[in-house]
Design a protein that fits this description.
single chain, alpha+beta, Nuclear Transport Factor 2, Chain: A, 5 strands, 16% strand, globular
């Protein structure tokens, strides 16, 4: 499978930007408070308000100090994005419980856990940079947010749909998948924008990268940031 096209990458960036830029309000920043995660829709609203405030303040310094901006964004994303769940989904069989149980030695199991932790760190960096950079330039006209009945909603799973109307009159539909974690609160587990599934796209990229590097999973884990943020996409379909 080919690396995701430039168009898909832009759409994914838009979905991330929307999560940050939704529900725009006045220019006065509000103190950041712990995000309440007992309701999926309210959680997204509160998180996006906070991130928008951060991005507004960062426009005065982000050009010369991006890391300061990222450091401000990171604690908010930590509260709403289930990186552990997402990382295991992207790595797929390379991070499966079945693989872990098949390992014979303590050293192999320790290497498995370490690999997953390294990937979670790299994946979080990719998420943070894409979200943070996108919101600095995003200009939305109108955003509507509502619960979405996908037929898969249950007591521990939910979907929220955003309809984005940009300043050029275009409309985009984004779906956020959420689930309950062990403490009973909600977290975002996946994003789908205009039928492009972010989790599956990343999973395909991870699998392709492992194949391209002759099965060297550790190489892909240790170079994931370069693969996703710095390396040029190859084989773009142009779709």
């Amino acid at each position: 499978m080919k690396i995701v096209s430039t168009t898909v990458t832009l759409l994914l960036s838009l979905s991330m930007a929307v999560l940050l830029a939704a529900f725009a309000h006045g220019e006065t920043a509000v103190p950041l408070a712990p995000i309440q995660r007992d309701d999926p829709q309210q959680m997204l609203e509160q998180a996006t308000h906070q991130l928008l405030d951060i991005s507004r303040a960062a426009r005065a310094y982000a050009d010369t100090d991006k890391e300061r901006y990222y450091a401000a964004v990171s604690p908010v994303l930590d509260q709403v994005m289930d990186i552990d769940y997402f990382a295991k989904g992207v790595m797929a069989t390379y991070a499966s419980a079945r693989l872990y149980k098949s390992l014979q030695t303590d050293a192999e199991r320790a290497a498995f856990r370490d690999r997953l932790e390294r990937f979670k760190t790299a994946l979080k960096r990719v998420w943070m940079v894409k979200y943070a950079d996108a919101v600095l330039s995003f200009k939305g006209e109108r955003i509507e947010l509502a619960p979405l009945d996908t037929g898969d909603n249950s007591a521990d799973r939910s979907s929220v749909e955003q309809t984005v109307h940009d300043e050029d009159g275009k409309t985009y539909v984004i779906q956020y998948s959420l689930h309950k974690v062990k403490d009973g609160s909600w977290m975002v587990s996946n994003v789908i924008v205009e039928h492009v599934n972010l989790g599956l796209t990343y999973r395909d990229q991870f699998a392709e990268s492992v194949e391209n590097h002759k099965g060297d999973v550790d190489y892909v884990v240790d170079h994931w940031i370069d693969i996703m943020l710095h390396a040029k996409s190859s084989g773009s379909s142009g779709e």
